[in-house]
Amino acid sequence: MRLVYIQQKTEMELQSFKNEMKVFKDEMTDFKNEMRVFKDEMRVFKDEMTDFKNEMRVFKDEMLDFKNEMRVFKDEMKVFKDEMTDFKNEMRVFKDEMLDFKEWSKKNIESLNRQWGNLANRMGTLVEDIFFPSMDQTIERYFHIQCDILERNKRIRKDDESLEIDILAILKKTKQAFIVEVKSNPDRIEYIEGFLKKLDKITQFLPELEEYTRIGIYAGLDMSKETVDLLTKKRIYAMVFKGDFLEIVNFEDLSGVRS
Protein backbone atom coordinates (compact mmCIF):
# COMPACT_ATOMS: atom_id res chain seq x y z
CA MET A 1 0.00 0.00 0.00
CA ARG A 2 2.70 2.37 0.83
CA LEU A 3 4.33 1.81 -2.50
CA VAL A 4 1.11 2.55 -4.32
CA TYR A 5 0.67 5.71 -2.31
CA ILE A 6 4.16 6.88 -3.12
CA GLN A 7 3.67 6.06 -6.76
CA GLN A 8 0.39 8.00 -6.87
CA LYS A 9 1.91 10.93 -5.07
CA THR A 10 4.81 10.95 -7.45
CA GLU A 11 2.49 10.89 -10.43
CA MET A 12 0.47 13.75 -8.96
CA GLU A 13 3.60 15.78 -8.35
CA LEU A 14 4.79 14.99 -11.84
CA GLN A 15 1.45 16.05 -13.29
CA SER A 16 1.58 19.25 -11.26
CA PHE A 17 5.13 19.90 -12.53
CA LYS A 18 4.01 19.28 -16.07
CA ASN A 19 1.16 21.72 -15.59
CA GLU A 20 3.51 24.32 -14.15
CA MET A 21 5.94 23.77 -17.02
CA LYS A 22 3.11 24.19 -19.48
CA VAL A 23 2.13 27.45 -17.78
CA PHE A 24 5.80 28.52 -17.80
CA LYS A 25 6.09 27.58 -21.45
CA ASP A 26 2.98 29.57 -22.26
CA GLU A 27 4.29 32.51 -20.29
CA MET A 28 7.62 32.26 -22.09
CA THR A 29 5.78 32.13 -25.40
CA ASP A 30 3.88 35.26 -24.41
CA PHE A 31 7.13 36.85 -23.27
CA LYS A 32 8.79 36.00 -26.55
CA ASN A 33 5.84 37.47 -28.40
CA GLU A 34 6.00 40.55 -26.26
CA MET A 35 9.74 40.83 -26.84
CA ARG A 36 9.19 40.43 -30.58
CA VAL A 37 6.61 43.24 -30.46
CA PHE A 38 8.97 45.29 -28.30
CA LYS A 39 11.80 44.58 -30.70
CA ASP A 40 9.64 45.72 -33.61
CA GLU A 41 8.63 48.83 -31.69
CA MET A 42 12.25 49.54 -30.86
CA ARG A 43 13.16 49.10 -34.52
CA VAL A 44 10.45 51.60 -35.44
CA PHE A 45 11.64 53.91 -32.65
CA LYS A 46 15.22 53.53 -33.85
CA ASP A 47 14.16 54.39 -37.40
CA GLU A 48 12.22 57.39 -36.11
CA MET A 49 15.20 58.51 -34.07
CA THR A 50 17.40 58.09 -37.12
CA ASP A 51 14.97 60.25 -39.14
CA PHE A 52 14.84 62.75 -36.29
CA LYS A 53 18.62 62.89 -36.11
CA ASN A 54 18.75 63.43 -39.85
CA GLU A 55 16.14 66.17 -39.63
CA MET A 56 18.03 67.76 -36.76
CA ARG A 57 21.23 67.59 -38.81
CA VAL A 58 19.45 69.31 -41.70
CA PHE A 59 17.93 71.85 -39.28
CA LYS A 60 21.35 72.44 -37.74
CA ASP A 61 22.82 73.04 -41.20
CA GLU A 62 19.97 75.38 -42.05
CA MET A 63 20.42 77.28 -38.79
CA LEU A 64 24.14 77.51 -39.49
CA ASP A 65 23.40 78.92 -42.94
CA PHE A 66 20.86 81.32 -41.43
CA LYS A 67 23.37 82.39 -38.81
CA ASN A 68 25.95 83.05 -41.52
CA GLU A 69 23.37 84.98 -43.58
CA MET A 70 22.46 87.04 -40.53
CA ARG A 71 26.12 87.77 -39.92
CA VAL A 72 26.48 88.94 -43.53
CA PHE A 73 23.24 90.95 -43.21
CA LYS A 74 24.46 92.49 -39.99
CA ASP A 75 27.71 93.51 -41.68
CA GLU A 76 25.79 94.94 -44.64
CA MET A 77 23.48 96.86 -42.28
CA LYS A 78 26.50 98.27 -40.49
CA VAL A 79 27.93 99.43 -43.82
CA PHE A 80 24.51 100.87 -44.75
CA LYS A 81 24.23 102.59 -41.38
CA ASP A 82 27.69 104.12 -41.83
CA GLU A 83 26.74 105.25 -45.35
CA MET A 84 23.51 106.80 -44.05
CA THR A 85 25.44 108.58 -41.31
CA ASP A 86 27.85 109.95 -43.92
CA PHE A 87 24.88 110.94 -46.12
CA LYS A 88 23.17 112.70 -43.22
CA ASN A 89 26.36 114.58 -42.45
CA GLU A 90 26.74 115.53 -46.11
CA MET A 91 23.10 116.68 -46.23
CA ARG A 92 23.63 118.73 -43.07
CA VAL A 93 26.65 120.40 -44.66
CA PHE A 94 24.69 120.90 -47.90
CA LYS A 95 21.75 122.38 -45.97
CA ASP A 96 24.06 124.79 -44.16
CA GLU A 97 25.66 125.75 -47.46
CA MET A 98 22.23 126.30 -49.04
CA LEU A 99 21.15 128.45 -46.09
CA ASP A 100 24.32 130.50 -46.44
CA PHE A 101 23.76 130.77 -50.19
CA LYS A 102 20.10 131.72 -49.67
CA GLU A 103 21.10 134.40 -47.18
CA TRP A 104 23.85 135.61 -49.52
CA SER A 105 21.41 135.64 -52.47
CA LYS A 106 18.78 137.49 -50.46
CA LYS A 107 21.27 140.15 -49.41
CA ASN A 108 22.60 140.51 -52.94
CA ILE A 109 19.11 140.61 -54.50
CA GLU A 110 18.01 143.21 -51.97
CA SER A 111 21.19 145.16 -52.67
CA LEU A 112 20.65 144.95 -56.44
CA ASN A 113 16.99 145.91 -56.11
CA ARG A 114 17.95 148.79 -53.85
CA GLN A 115 20.55 149.97 -56.38
CA TRP A 116 18.05 149.51 -59.19
CA GLY A 117 15.44 151.46 -57.23
CA ASN A 118 17.91 154.24 -56.44
CA LEU A 119 18.91 154.41 -60.10
CA ALA A 120 15.28 154.55 -61.17
CA ASN A 121 14.69 157.15 -58.49
CA ARG A 122 17.52 159.34 -59.83
CA MET A 123 16.29 158.89 -63.39
CA GLY A 124 12.70 159.68 -62.46
CA THR A 125 11.38 156.33 -63.75
CA LEU A 126 10.08 154.81 -60.52
CA VAL A 127 6.63 154.30 -61.99
CA GLU A 128 7.80 152.66 -65.20
CA ASP A 129 10.61 150.50 -63.77
CA ILE A 130 9.54 149.56 -60.25
CA PHE A 131 5.86 149.97 -59.44
CA PHE A 132 3.84 149.64 -62.64
CA PRO A 133 5.20 146.19 -63.76
CA SER A 134 4.15 144.55 -60.48
CA MET A 135 1.07 146.58 -59.57
CA ASP A 136 -1.55 144.19 -60.98
CA GLN A 137 0.06 141.21 -59.21
CA THR A 138 0.29 143.14 -55.95
CA ILE A 139 -3.37 144.18 -56.06
CA GLU A 140 -4.38 140.60 -56.84
CA ARG A 141 -2.22 139.30 -53.98
CA TYR A 142 -3.77 141.62 -51.42
CA PHE A 143 -7.35 142.01 -52.71
CA HIS A 144 -7.77 138.64 -54.47
CA ILE A 145 -9.09 140.01 -57.75
CA GLN A 146 -7.51 140.82 -61.11
CA CYS A 147 -7.34 144.28 -62.63
CA ASP A 148 -9.41 144.89 -65.75
CA ILE A 149 -7.66 148.13 -66.63
CA LEU A 150 -4.17 149.21 -65.60
CA GLU A 151 -2.82 152.56 -66.82
CA ARG A 152 0.27 154.59 -65.99
CA ASN A 153 1.07 158.29 -66.25
CA LYS A 154 -2.54 159.08 -67.06
CA ARG A 155 -3.05 162.81 -67.67
CA ILE A 156 -6.54 164.33 -67.90
CA ARG A 157 -7.21 167.91 -68.96
CA LYS A 158 -10.36 169.79 -68.17
CA ASP A 159 -10.78 173.46 -69.00
CA ASP A 160 -7.56 175.08 -67.81
CA GLU A 161 -6.70 172.40 -65.29
CA SER A 162 -5.02 169.02 -65.57
CA LEU A 163 -4.73 166.00 -63.35
CA GLU A 164 -1.99 163.39 -63.54
CA ILE A 165 -2.33 159.89 -62.10
CA ASP A 166 0.83 157.82 -61.80
CA ILE A 167 -1.02 154.47 -61.87
CA LEU A 168 -4.75 153.80 -62.20
CA ALA A 169 -6.12 150.29 -61.68
CA ILE A 170 -9.78 149.57 -62.43
CA LEU A 171 -11.62 146.50 -61.12
CA LYS A 172 -14.98 146.43 -62.87
CA LYS A 173 -16.41 143.42 -61.08
CA THR A 174 -16.03 144.89 -57.61
CA LYS A 175 -16.41 148.51 -58.75
CA GLN A 176 -13.08 149.51 -57.26
CA ALA A 177 -10.58 152.06 -58.55
CA PHE A 178 -7.04 152.15 -57.16
CA ILE A 179 -5.31 155.52 -57.52
CA VAL A 180 -1.57 155.14 -56.98
CA GLU A 181 0.76 158.05 -56.27
CA VAL A 182 4.49 157.27 -56.53
CA LYS A 183 7.04 159.58 -54.92
CA SER A 184 10.83 159.47 -54.82
CA ASN A 185 10.73 161.28 -51.45
CA PRO A 186 7.49 160.06 -49.88
CA ASP A 187 8.13 161.47 -46.39
CA ARG A 188 7.40 165.06 -47.46
CA ILE A 189 4.11 166.13 -45.88
CA GLU A 190 3.16 168.39 -48.80
CA TYR A 191 3.21 165.39 -51.14
CA ILE A 192 0.73 163.52 -48.94
CA GLU A 193 -1.51 166.57 -48.70
CA GLY A 194 -1.36 167.01 -52.47
CA PHE A 195 -2.37 163.37 -52.97
CA LEU A 196 -5.34 163.76 -50.64
CA LYS A 197 -6.52 166.77 -52.64
CA LYS A 198 -6.10 164.79 -55.85
CA LEU A 199 -8.31 162.01 -54.47
CA ASP A 200 -10.98 164.57 -53.54
CA LYS A 201 -11.26 166.05 -57.02
CA ILE A 202 -10.55 163.00 -59.18
CA THR A 203 -14.21 162.50 -60.08
CA GLN A 204 -14.25 166.03 -61.54
CA PHE A 205 -11.79 164.78 -64.14
CA LEU A 206 -13.03 161.18 -64.31
CA PRO A 207 -16.78 161.29 -63.59
CA GLU A 208 -17.12 157.60 -64.50
CA LEU A 209 -15.40 156.84 -61.18
CA GLU A 210 -18.37 158.24 -59.22
CA GLU A 211 -19.87 154.75 -59.01
CA TYR A 212 -16.56 153.19 -57.97
CA THR A 213 -15.03 152.84 -54.52
CA ARG A 214 -11.89 154.92 -54.82
CA ILE A 215 -8.87 153.56 -52.96
CA GLY A 216 -5.69 155.56 -52.55
CA ILE A 217 -2.23 153.98 -52.51
CA TYR A 218 0.76 156.17 -51.67
CA ALA A 219 4.02 154.52 -52.81
CA GLY A 220 7.75 154.99 -52.47
CA LEU A 221 10.90 152.93 -52.29
CA ASP A 222 10.79 153.31 -48.53
CA MET A 223 9.05 155.56 -46.03
CA SER A 224 9.28 156.38 -42.34
CA LYS A 225 6.99 154.97 -39.66
CA GLU A 226 5.61 158.47 -39.11
CA THR A 227 4.58 158.67 -42.75
CA VAL A 228 2.94 155.22 -42.59
CA ASP A 229 1.06 156.20 -39.41
CA LEU A 230 -0.17 159.41 -41.06
CA LEU A 231 -1.36 157.51 -44.15
CA THR A 232 -3.13 154.97 -41.98
CA LYS A 233 -4.86 157.79 -40.12
CA LYS A 234 -5.97 159.22 -43.49
CA ARG A 235 -7.08 155.72 -44.57
CA ILE A 236 -4.53 155.59 -47.39
CA TYR A 237 -2.55 152.44 -48.18
CA ALA A 238 1.24 152.79 -47.83
CA MET A 239 3.22 150.80 -50.40
CA VAL A 240 6.99 150.28 -50.39
CA PHE A 241 9.49 148.27 -52.42
CA LYS A 242 10.71 145.52 -50.11
CA GLY A 243 13.14 142.79 -51.18
CA ASP A 244 11.96 141.92 -54.67
CA PHE A 245 8.24 142.71 -54.41
CA LEU A 246 5.83 145.49 -53.50
CA GLU A 247 4.35 145.46 -50.02
CA ILE A 248 1.44 147.36 -48.49
CA VAL A 249 2.85 147.88 -45.03
CA ASN A 250 -0.36 149.06 -43.34
CA PHE A 251 -2.71 146.63 -45.06
CA GLU A 252 -3.66 144.82 -41.84
CA ASP A 253 -4.32 148.11 -40.06
CA LEU A 254 -6.69 149.30 -42.79
CA SER A 255 -8.34 146.01 -43.80
CA GLY A 256 -10.57 146.01 -40.72
CA VAL A 257 -11.50 149.65 -41.24
CA ARG A 258 -12.44 149.17 -44.91
CA SER A 259 -14.26 145.83 -44.57
Task: Write a short abstract of this structure.
By secondary structure, the chain is α/β, with parallel strands linked by helices.
Q: What is the element string, with H for helices and E for strands?
A: HHEEEHEHEEH
CATH architecture of the largest domain: 3-Layer(aba) Sandwich
Tally the helices: what do you get?
Answer: 5
Give the C-level CATH assignment of the largest domain.
Alpha Beta
Overall spatial form: rod-shaped
Task: Tell me the total number of β-strands.
Answer: 6
Supply Rg.
54 Å
Strand content: 15-25%
Number of domains: 2
Low-confidence stretches: 119-124
Can you describe what's shown?
The chain is α/β, with parallel strands linked by helices and 259 residues long. The protein has two domains: 1-123; 125-258, Trna Endonuclease, Chain: A, domain 1, CATH 3.40.1350. 67% of the residues lie in helices and 18% in strands. It has five helices and six strands. The chain has helices spanning 2-123, 126-143, 189-205, 225-233, 251-258; strands at residues 149-158, 161-171, 176-182, 213-220, 237-242, 245-248. A six-stranded mixed β-sheet has the order 1-2-3-4-5-6, sandwiched between helices. The longest helix is centred in the first third of the chain and has 122 residues, at 2-123. It is rod-shaped. Mean pLDDT is 85; it is low at 119-124.
